[in-house]
Amino acid sequence: MDPQRILVIVLGSIGDAVLALAPLAMLRAHHRDAEITVLTQRGNVRFLSKSPYVDRVDVRWPQSKWIDKAKFIWSLHQERYDMVYDLTNSGESDHLFQLLWPLRPNWSGGAVGCSHPHVDRTRLTLHRLDRHAEQLLTCGIGPKEGFAPGLSPLPDLSWVDSVVKDPAKLTPRHHGIVEPFAFLAPEGPAAEPSKRWPTARYGELALDLERRGIQPVLVGGPAAIELAVEIRAIAPKALDLVARLDVFQFIGLARKSMLAVGSEGDMAIIAAAAGAPTLAIINPNETSVRKAAPRGSATVGLVARNFDTIRVQDVLAAARAVTPTILEAQAS
Fold it and tell me: Which InterPro entries match (predicted)?
C-alpha cells in the first residue's frame, strides 16, 4: 500500500534545503497523493513551505531538553507517519529513529535497524545530490538504472518567481545593481578561514572586475558581514548586499549574474543551483571536492591545497569555463 503520510527529514542550512528540493520533487512525483511533511530548522521554513512539493513543515527537532524530546516523540507517534525519508543521515536524525522505539515507522536512511537501509558504505563521501538519488533508488524511486555519479537531478527552482509578490525585488535595479555584475561570496562553511579564499584576494578580484566594467556584489549571511567590510576597505565601490537578500531574491538575481565566486558555502551552492555561472574555490585538505563542490548547469572548481597560491588571474582564467566573455573586457 502506498504511504499516505510521509515525513522527510531535512536538517541543515538553507543550502541543504535548496539541494533537498531534488529528492523532494522525486518523492512528490512518486507519492502523488500523499501528505508530505518536512522536518527542518526554523531558518528553512519560509523557503520549504513555499515549494510545490511540501504540504507541511515541522521545526520541533532537534530538542535539547529531555521533556521536550519526549513531547516531540509522543507527537510523532500521534501523527502516524507511514514512511520517513531521512535525507540528513546525521547522528541527530539517527538518534530520532532510536527514540521512536518500539513503534518505529518505515524508515529510509542510514539508521541501524531501519526498514529501508541505505547500506552503501561510501554514501557519506558522495555529493548530497548523488547520495539522495541513490537512497531513493533503494526505495524503488527514480529510474531503475539509477543515475551516474554527477548526473543526479538538480533542484528545480523555476517556481520561485511565482511566490514572490513583488517581482521588482527579483530585478538587479531594485537592489542598486548595475549589469553586468558578479556575486562574490566570501563566507565559507561555518566561516572557517581554512576553507575560504583570503579576504584580501576577494578585494583584489573586486577591483579587477570593476576595471572590466563588471560590478562586484558582495553576498552572504550574517557571518560574512565583517568580511564584506574588509573587502570594501580594498574595493570601496563593491556593492554590499550581505545579509540583505532573502533566498528568493538571491535566486532571482543569481539567474541574471555574469558569475558567482565562492567556496562550498550556501551562497555558492544556491547560485549554482539557480543556474548562475559559478566558480567554487576549494581546499581538498579541508573537504572532499567530490562531496562539496556546488552543482549546477554551469559550474567549475578551482582546487588548491594552499589558497594563498591562487591569484586573481587564476580565478578569472578558470571562470572562462563557465563565462567565456569575462576576459573580453580588458582592464584599463
Answer: Glyco_trans_9, LPS_LOS_Heptosyltrfase
